[in-house]
Amino acid sequence: MNAETTATLIDNVDTYMTQLGQAARAAATTLRRTDTRTKNAALQAIARQLDAARSEVKLANQHDLERGRANGLDDAMLDRLALTDVRIDAMIAGLHQVAALPDPVGEIDGLKSLPSGIQLGHMRVPLGVIGIIYESRPNVTMEAASLCLKSGNACILRGGSEASESNAALASCITRGLSEAGVDVTAAQVVATTDRAAVGRLITMPEYVDVIIPRGGKSLIERISSEARVPVIKHLDGICHVYIDASADLDMAEAIAVNAKTHRYGVCNAMETLLVDASIAERILPRLAAAYAGHGVEMRGCERARAVVANMLPASEEDWQTEYLAPILAIRVVDGIDDAMAHIDRYSSRHTDAIVTNDYRLARRFVAEVDSSSVMVNASTRFADGFEYGLGAEIGISTDRLHVRGPVGLEGLTTRKYVVFGEGQIRQ
Amino acid sequence: MNAETTATLIDNVDTYMTQLGQAARAAATTLRRTDTRTKNAALQAIARQLDAARSEVKLANQHDLERGRANGLDDAMLDRLALTDVRIDAMIAGLHQVAALPDPVGEIDGLKSLPSGIQLGHMRVPLGVIGIIYESRPNVTMEAASLCLKSGNACILRGGSEASESNAALASCITRGLSEAGVDVTAAQVVATTDRAAVGRLITMPEYVDVIIPRGGKSLIERISSEARVPVIKHLDGICHVYIDASADLDMAEAIAVNAKTHRYGVCNAMETLLVDASIAERILPRLAAAYAGHGVEMRGCERARAVVANMLPASEEDWQTEYLAPILAIRVVDGIDDAMAHIDRYSSRHTDAIVTNDYRLARRFVAEVDSSSVMVNASTRFADGFEYGLGAEIGISTDRLHVRGPVGLEGLTTRKYVVFGEGQIRQ
Fold first, then answer.
1. Which of A106, A118, A229 sits opposite B383 (nearest CB)?
2. Is residue A404 part of a domain?
3. Which DSSP state fits B36?
4. Model confidence over B91-147: pLDDT tens digits?
5. Is there a single domain that holds both residue A325 and residue A376?
6. CATH number of the domain that residue A16 is part of
7. Which of B383, B394, B405 should one mutate to test binding to chain A, selecting the residue with the greatest count of A CBs within 10 A?
8. pTM of the model
9. Helices H / strands E in chain A, number of each
10. Which of A184, A324, B197, B229 would give a disulfide with B13, using CB separation of 3.0 to 4.6 Å?
11. In angstroms, what is the C-alpha Rg of chain B?
12. What is the CATH number of the domain that holds A314?
């Protein structure tokens, strides 16, 4: 392809993305005025359209799978890409679940009368236009569209190129459902080009897009964050810790430390490093080592941990910095809570960290002082999840500091404006 | 200055800013663990130090004023720059006021038990390190430092070069006060170079700075927003509207429309465009025109407004887009609330917009549908202010959508993390 052709293509992608942006901005204006009943009707209509389009969706998915196989995608990637009837059922159920959730938009809290006589409150309103960039799982198309729609936001969805036909088929269901319910069909748009320039444009048009939510691998998210000219709500690492304090109930500590590591390995809220107070290392580490060995978890310990349990590999500096997402665990013996919190301060990705303790003051200190999006006492890090937190649904887990930290549900997709009710008050 | 010397200087500024950043990051870690009593003691100590250093501060300010006069600063700028005893008293009073405000850090809300047995709540915590970039008023140094300190944030303050000696003198008071109270002296640092490269570095070190708050003219803020690699909480225009509906009480409408325009001209929450429903234009516009004429306000009207009040200048497209900050008012006659909201949607800077009405349904629609940081019924736009809203203090007014909209007080300088209290729960 010569330079001139490339330039023409990029120009077209820019124009195309600008059109999507303009349409999304217009849709956002009507969507924030759309009542709950209409939004729910649209979600249910999309569910019906998806049910009616099963064969169409599965055929499109077959094409993606065939192309993926031809392109050498591995089994795990092909599995994430596949849309079976079970997964279509789950998407339909998900749409109905989102329809059943309370609508956060319009909620007013803190309404109070002020000395001037005005009454002031805080009203929850949509963010506006949300751009979502994700990778191979086409189910994300439905999840993201439904959460944005329910929270009154227009969205522009950019899925992975390997799922392009599946996403286009799902986009048709969304469009038909929106149309059936009388909602602007540009309320949820799927980017119909696999050209990478589309992402570059999507993240640099603040006039049309209010926030970007990238979902996927760390390199994708880092690249988007550094290039975006729009606020980004992102999730980077999940290097989660459990600290077992000297006062911990050892049965409880074992149950939590085993669950946090072995319940699922490839998830961001799995424990990656276990910290054990020196005074109980000899009592708890052998029990834990036996339990981990039973689960096939490879242990990598500091020198003091290895002095207690001989069959551990040595942990290096790199281990403290690694999100394994695998049956591997780093173990360090520490001297009390200050030492534990210093380790967490230095190495935690500020996602989720837990203490197991029966000491009231240490529990309070850990909760107050550990600076992570979820801080837990006597519970498994695996609870850091939108469903477990009762959000009803989750668009991701934010490891950012501003706007929203931790699991992001409908509320995280909204913002608040001030509302003032007066009776003719003026400033004196 | 040759190129080599410049390069050396810039290198030094980068190193210097990096050192400030590292020190601020370390201070933020201790500051978020500092209790309310200590933070208040530090605020009071800074107030005492400032009181004791009056002559030192005024001498430094004299040097700034002399340099400013020599550099041709106009009277308004020199006035903003001046630190009189009255202004020093106001800064001291401000420090005591911030000390008296409730500490938002550590507040837990929404604590509830979930089906798994865990108890989940949302705890308010500091943002971390805040970079504040401002222009000529040296009082901002104290205001910003006190609000950041009370909310548990470390801050790096970069004031205008014209106020450099004043800011350095105030910085000494801050340092002495922090030290006296046993708080890390790098909790609040004033950038001690006027080199512009310092700003460039400050806004591009996300490893040390969590958020940037620029205060000043629109061009400064736009430049910082477009170049920052850190989230920015910003205030751009204040193009505020008042819409007088057909059902409005005319006395109330007149009082609000006059107050919103004439109470102060150079402020962001002043009305810049008045919208009047066509059905009452003939009754309200002549009264308003007489009142505005009495205040010396220049009126620029649409054709329909000028058909009612002859002595208006014609308004152009540009008038609807202008934040006058002056005794000038654009006036447009509209056909009902939809027409008014369409105008607001198109031209409002989404700062503050108000309706004057006695119609229940229209009041509800306006509040729900107008997308501005403050939306008012029957009150002057001039109420959009941190003090009037009971925040106790204000670091600015955000016209952004994420994190915080409208007046930003202590709460806007914090974020929330999840806290989980368990009794040994694990994921099943």
1. A118
2. no
3. H
4. 999 999 999 999 999 999 999 999 999 999 999 999 999 999 998 899 999 999 999
5. yes
6. 3.40.605.10
7. B383
8. 0.92
9. 15, 16
10. B197
11. 24
12. 3.40.309.10
